[in-house]
Design brief:
eight-stranded mixed sheet; 2,3-Dihydroxybiphenyl 1,2-Dioxygenase, domain 1; alpha+beta; oxidoreductase; globular
Length: about 120
């Protein structure tokens, strides 16, 4: 099962203060738009997203089709196939992707401790 790029999406109270803090830890902007209250930061292979006012809890995020630099991968497991495999294993999907579609889609689930996991395919 190829899950794609991994990052942690953090819900933050003040995106500018959070950006300054993570820059002190060596993170640099990889993408996003601070004026829209979201940024993607990277330090070597570690990727975090900062999101102000977009969701309540931190989220583990997988991006099928991308590497850690948000570059397209040649081969990857489509999000609908990932969802199908997980459902076949009895994993409860909270928000499902349309399995008849193609291209960008997402679905979410929670681990046994209530941690949110987002699978978000951008292509």
């Amino acid at each position: 099962m190829k899950l794609g790029a991994f990052s942690v999406s953090l819900t933050v109270k003040d995106i500018k203060k959070s950006k300054e803090f993570y820059e002190k830890l060596g993170f640099e902007a990889l993408g996003g738009d601070i004026s829209q209250n979201w940024l993607i930061l990277k330090n070597e292979s570690c990727v975090i997203g900062l999101f102000q006012g977009m969701f309540e809890k931190n989220i583990l995020t997988f991006n099928p089709g991308w590497n850690q630099n948000a570059e397209n991968l040649e081969g990857f497991t489509d999000i609908r196939n990932l969802q199908k495999q997980l459902k076949e294993q009895g994993v409860h999907i909270i928000n499902e992707a349309d399995e008849s579609g193609a291209g960008p889609a997402s679905f979410t689930l929670e681990d046994p401790d209530g941690n949110a996991i987002l699978f978000d395919q951008h292509r």
